[in-house]
Amino acid sequence: MLLEKLEKKALGAALVVSPASIAYLTGFRSDPMERFMALWIRADGTTILYVPELDETKASMIQGIDRLVPIPDGKPAIEVLRGNCGGELQRCGIEKETLKWKMAEQLVYLWPDTEFVDIDSDIGQMRGCKTRTEADLVKAAAGFGDAALEAALRFFRRGMKERELAEEIDRQIILAGGDGPAFKTTVLGGERSALPHGETSEYVIVDGDIVLVDMGVVHKGYLSDMTRTFLVGHGTAEQERMYETVLEGNRRAIAALQLGAPLASVDEAARSWIRSRGYGEQFPHRVGHGLGIEIHEPPSVHGWNEQPIVSGMLLTIEPGIYIPGLGGVRIEDDLYVNEDGFAEQLTRFPKSLKRL
């Protein structure tokens, strides 16, 4: 599919440097850290994979790569790249959002007559449309997450620290069969649950607190992402009203996932409901995002995205309300728009209000 995009844009080759995109295109997964890693794809289909020398053995197991070029520590990667990629190109595709400025300068210096064309959106469109196999991997990851959260909550007690509950969730992810957490598991209690991007702390969870859990699971390189919110004890009428408002917003956004409808309408379905309940100013983020190899991938589900919904989209729906001094509620699910155009829910942990 990428070769078709190269042909359409009249590109002689593409240089892919995002580790996630390299994994998507080749199956080779590695975090090169500060080292250089890249995939060179010529318009004729020839592929060269550049990896740090310490990854050479692992990379040699990958099928479908025409040539593997290891780069020793300390050797200038750009020289290796120039020496193996062939002659001058008129047009070359690059990922402008990923490519470092220093590397970009070097490319322009070594290929002064080449026009470099951004292909971020092309790769994003490919990665944003999942196959049934990819969706099933995320579904399996989500299933491990459902089981892990259910098991971890059996260990919950009043007086437990956020960190202790997060650690128990991580332990249960492994016991459930997941490869590990997809990201740093977040547990926020009490007023701290009003932090949309809060970090787990030593806060002690007490009676009357809201507890927000944001977690995900890795399974064979694919990630799930789920948020559930709970009440410790009875709670207050306002906490319950916040919860029921977010839950209905979640349901309305999911119902709006209809083939051909703009993604903006999904955001608006949740946002208009939350606004009507008087919480519009307390819902500060988009309603969702794509996920797969990375936890945030295309598409972005926000109020300005007119991109139509198509089969293969795999995304989150996660409306929230956050009130400083009181707490926050977010309910997040993973959805796959399957081959029949139906929005299939992959996360299955119950969403009705649960008291701990």
Summarize this, please?
This protein has 356 residues and is α+β, with helices and mostly antiparallel strands.
Question: What report would you give on this structure?
Answer:
This protein is α+β, with helices and mostly antiparallel strands and 356 residues long. The protein has ten helices and 19 strands. It has helices at residues 2-8, 19-26, 56-59, 77-84, 101-110, 120-127, 132-153, 162-176, 237-255, 263-276; strands spanning 13-16, 38-42, 47-52, 67-71, 91-94, 115-118, 180-181, 186-189, 210-215, 217-219, 222-223, 226-231, 288-290, 297-301, 314-317, 320-323, 327-330, 333-337, 343-345. The strands form six sheets. A six-stranded mixed sheet has the order 4-3-2-1-5-6. A three-stranded antiparallel sheet has the order 7-10-11. It has a three-stranded antiparallel sheet with strand order 8-9-12, covered by helices on one side. The chain is elongated. The mean pLDDT is 94.
